[in-house]
């Protein structure tokens, strides 16, 4: 189980959190083509390596945080 | 006593093939087999990074069924089930395909409505399906706790009698042997590291064992499809997750059907050898680590023991995880890609084993003719742009 460092609550077990997927996905601005909209809705990075991702501290402070995690070693570090 | 003969050659790669299949799991082997059998295309290589069928083919819970809700899914999975029914004879190998019946339990009113609806939809699509009330469930599978005080009360179940299990290793070995007999080169320890693309057409793959020219390249790499596609400059709507399973110690025969419960993420069967085979849900986060979290197993076992109190003192022998590629609508992606000559068969998520022959059949046809097989058409990559999704998430089964 991962130990995630919540900025508000400190290091907590993974099962207090809800996974939120890739970080930094923002709503597209202005008019979008079908392809751009599909990209926003469905396309996410799926790297074998470091991954910036969102976690929600559901059973704690109920805030979102961003971490970097390695998808092979599961090592977690603070995002730069 | 002499060692039995090898079932397939172990050739070095040749410089060029008509078709290169990337991934030597069940789907890759089935694709190679049907390319040769149905289309006479035998100048084919299957490139496997590790050893044949050592990925998800060796890690799944071997459940076979076709009781999906939507027409498109029912059609492709039923095609696959029909192939399973003749596959042992066709491959001349005992696949231990056992149509012992698959129960999908309903624990609440929503489950009951969904189950009854799915039974009707299945029947309209020519898929055998029955609705069992709790007494009938108890009769069909006596060790399920159907008491009214159960933590997860059993309010009924769907039953597909033609569903069941097969011996995954035998399936891989039989397909590999027949593909090899047709002249297909099964090349192990050969990792694809890049694609040569000229004027938007793939012409070769770079591998850890050198360059291999290819008329067509077909991905069949499950959880690693995103990594490969990225090397060809393609982004896919796939996320890779660990999916865990476990086996118990060997037991006397105690469970003669497959029991699935989507609501509590439990699926159980008893293998021919005697161990209980149980699957969990996916671990939430993206991973290529081929291992999962204990808390996922713990939650799944807790639910399993509520359903099967008789298992309370059974010991777990081992747990493991495979990496599954999950698509946004929990349906596979089959067909062409934006790169000419490069084909994709991915996104089977947690349910690819049952599709092995059907997937190979339609993928081989798609590759041979350069257009989607009719059963594969709805599963093309374009559906995420057009919005014509095949949303099986809540419908047929969360746990495939």
Automatic annotation (TrEMBL), chain A:
GO biological process, one term: tetrahydrofolate metabolic process
InterPro entries assigned to the protein according to its UniProt record, in alphabetical order: SoxD, SoxD_sf
Molecular-function annotations in GO: sarcosine oxidase activity
Name this protein carries in UniProt: Sarcosine oxidase subunit delta
Organism: [Actinomadura] parvosata subsp. kistnae
TrEMBL record, chain B:
Domain Rhodanese: 19-63
Pfam families in alphabetical order: DAO (PF01266)
EC number: 1.5.3.24
GO molecular function per UniProt: nucleotide binding; sarcosine oxidase activity
UniProt xrefs under InterPro entries: FAD-dep_OxRdtase (IPR006076), FAD/NAD-bd_sf (IPR036188), Rhodanese-like_dom (IPR001763), SoxB (IPR006278)
Cofactor: FAD; FMN
One term under GO cellular component: cytoplasm
BP terms from Gene Ontology: tetrahydrofolate metabolic process
Localization annotation: Cytoplasm
Superkingdom of the source species: Bacteria
Enzymatic reactions: sarcosine + O2 + H2O = formaldehyde + glycine + H2O2; sarcosine + (6S)-5,6,7,8-tetrahydrofolate + O2 = (6R)-5,10-methylene-5,6,7,8-tetrahydrofolate + glycine + H2O2
Keyword field: Cytoplasm, FAD, Flavoprotein, FMN, Nucleotide-binding, Oxidoreductase
Record-linked NCBIfam families: soxB
PANTHER family the UniProt entry points to: FAD-DEPENDENT OXIDOREDUCTASE DOMAIN-CONTAINING PROTEIN 1 (PTHR13847:SF287), SARCOSINE DEHYDROGENASE-RELATED (PTHR13847)
Similarity-based family: Belongs to the SoxB family.
Name the record gives this protein: Sarcosine oxidase subunit beta
Species name: [Actinomadura] parvosata subsp. kistnae
């Amino acid at each position: 189980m991962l130990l995630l460092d919540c900025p508000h609550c400190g290091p907590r077990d993974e099962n207090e959190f809800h996974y939120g997927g890739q970080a930094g996905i923002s709503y597209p601005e202005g008019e979008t083509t079908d392809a751009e909209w599909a990209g926003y809705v469905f396309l996410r990075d799926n790297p074998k390596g470091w991954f910036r991702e969102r976690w929600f501290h559901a059973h704690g402070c109920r805030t979102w945080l961003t971490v970097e995690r390695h998808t092979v070693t599961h090592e977690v570090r603070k995002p730069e | 006593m002499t060692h039995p003969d090898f079932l397939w050659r172990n050739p070095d790669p040749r410089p060029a093939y008509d078709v290169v299949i990337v991934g030597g799991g069940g789907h890759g082997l089935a694709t190679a087999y049907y390319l040769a059998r149905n289309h006479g295309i035998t100048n084919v290589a299957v490139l496997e990074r590790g050893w044949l069928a050592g990925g998800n083919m060796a890690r799944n819970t071997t459940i076979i069924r076709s009781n999906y809700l939507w027409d498109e899914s029912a059609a492709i999975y039923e095609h696959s089930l029909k192939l399973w029914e003749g596959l042992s004879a066709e491959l001349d190998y005992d696949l231990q395909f056992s149509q012992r019946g698959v129960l999908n339990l309903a624990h609440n009113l929503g489950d009951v409505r969904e189950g009854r609806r799915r039974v009707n939809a299945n029947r309209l699509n020519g898929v055998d399906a029955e609705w069992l009330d709790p007494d009938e469930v108890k009769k069909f599978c006596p060790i399920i706790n159907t008491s009214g005080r159960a933590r997860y009360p059993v309010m009924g179940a769907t039953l597909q009698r033609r569903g069941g299990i097969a011996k995954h290793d035998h399936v891989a070995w039989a397909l590999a042997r027949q593909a090899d007999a047709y002249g297909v080169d099964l090349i192990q320890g050969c990792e694809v590291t890049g694609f040569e693309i000229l004027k938007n057409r793939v012409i070769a793959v770079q591998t850890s064992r050198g360059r291999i020219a290819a008329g067509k390249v077909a991905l069949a790499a499950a959880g690693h499809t995103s990594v490969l596609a990225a090397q060809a400059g393609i982004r896919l709507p796939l996320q890779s997750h660990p999916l865990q399973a476990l086996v118990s110690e060997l037991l006397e025969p105690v469970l003669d059907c497959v029991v699935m419960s989507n609501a509590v993420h439990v699926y159980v069967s008893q293998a021919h050898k005697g161990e209980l085979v149980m699957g969990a849900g996916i671990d939430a986060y993206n991973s290529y680590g081929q291992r999962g979290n204990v808390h996922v197993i713990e939650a799944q076992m807790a639910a399993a023991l509520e359903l099967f109190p008789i298992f309370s003192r059974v010991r777990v022998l081992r747990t493991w995880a495979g990496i599954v590629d999950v698509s946004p609508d929990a349906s596979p992606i089959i067909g062409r890609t934006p790169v000419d000559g490069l084909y994709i068969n991915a996104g089977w998520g947690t349910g690819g084993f049952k599709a092995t022959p059907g997937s190979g059949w339609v993928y081989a046809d798609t590759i041979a003719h350069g257009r989607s097989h009719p059963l594969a058409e709805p599963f093309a990559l374009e559906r995420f742009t057009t919005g014509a999704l095949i949303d099986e998430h809540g419908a047929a089964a969360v746990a495939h």
